[in-house]
Amino acid sequence: MLALPLMLASCIKDEPLGTECDILSAWVEGEAYAPIFYQSTQMRKDDIASNEHEIVFTVRSLISLPREVPVCFALTEGATISPANGSLQDFTQGPVEYTVTSQDGQWQRHYSIEFREAAMPTYKFSFENVEEKEGINGCIYNVFYEIDSQGTRHDIWASGNEGVTLVHQDMQPADFPTHSIADGYRGKGICLNTQYAGDLGKLFNKPIAAGNLYMGKFNVNNVLFDPLRTTEFGTPIDRVPVRVTGYYKYKPGTDFTNASMDVVPGRTDQAHIYAVFYRNQDADGKNVVLYGDDVLSSQLIVRKAEVASLPPTDEWTRFEMFFEGGEADPAVLGELGYNLTVVFSSSKDGAAFEGAIGSTLYVDEVEVQFENEDE
Hints:
- By secondary structure, the protein is mainly beta.
- The protein is built from 3 helices and 30 strands.
- The strands form 8 sheets. Strands 14, 19, 20, 21, 24, 25, 27 and 28 form an 8-stranded antiparallel beta sheet that branches.
- Strand 12 (about 145) and strand 13 (about 155) form a beta hairpin.
- The longest helix has 6 residues, at about 200-205.
């Protein structure tokens, strides 16, 4: 069982040495290309998770994008890539497909590399855009995404669903902690429920999986050995948030348990809805993403918002939270120097693997409002 998560770092489970075929990092080579980006740090993508197949570089404008751009890659040991590493490619007509071949030549992974303008979604989330994705062990789960006014897809939402595929088999979307429902407040909605993580999860003192949905990415490589680093919170934002509203229903599970699965008498599970607006570069100019261990405590946080109370209710009930904190630097904002995440969880302490199995949170019609929105 200890070998199970390790297979996620390579392309096929139960692979022998030399079969890995992953892109680890990608970058645009040459300072001459820096002006097409908002920040020079956006020219590079590091720590690419093994579950990522699309790599997107955000640029100021596609009109100014040269017809030939050299993208370089760091690959797993011995792997090769086609088109050639660092070769000039035309990205003005859309994504370019790359194929990584393992050292032994027996395995391949396909990647889509794209340059995209920094268009933003509307930040009015009805959760109508949902698709089914096939994971390992015959599992099929829901993925949520947004479409902007120009019809561009934005994969800003993530959940822990892919991690659940490690410990279960042949699950369908409605069996997962995070899934779509047909009867939301208006149209579709989302259901988040806290579940038993199986014997493998219990073995690692991670016995429950809280339903969660958040703006950011899920890095499946760290599920069992560094779970707080699976959740990479935040996406770049070009405005300053002031308020989040939406609708919810909530029912806590019966027995609250700790990470050892011991029942904690007198304790009732709680849902959690919060948002964080933070600087995405540190003092040294390095890219920053917040994780489960610092998303509410990092010194780079500018503003936070949290719903103070989410009482159990069987009726769709409106919630509201206001951002509190400091001011954003307009110059940094104009360079996409801040990230925003909005987070929903069926168990407030789910990151510590504490909660009640069966706790269920429904959410729909969420809207983020911003400063100077009507100007």
